[in-house]
Task: structure prediction
Amino acid sequence: MELINNYFTALQTLNSLQIMLIVAAVLIVWFLPAMIAAVLNPAHAKYIVVACVPAGFSLIAWSGLMIWACTGKVFEKYKDKVAKDQQASI
Result:
């Protein structure tokens, strides 16, 4: 209980600029998969943005979104190679 009281006491001492910086940092981290997807996985970026909202509450779901956001161009890069390998094996 004392820990919670100390936490709220610390929050009361923050000024509005510090609170805005904390909120901005939280939002940047929360939507980091969406920002990465805009660059690395633009085909699925809109789905990742929508999925970021509930996934921010779960570290496991957020981590899954990070993986999904980072793997977009990797699949595109190796898709042609896999198609050539399949044609060669036939």
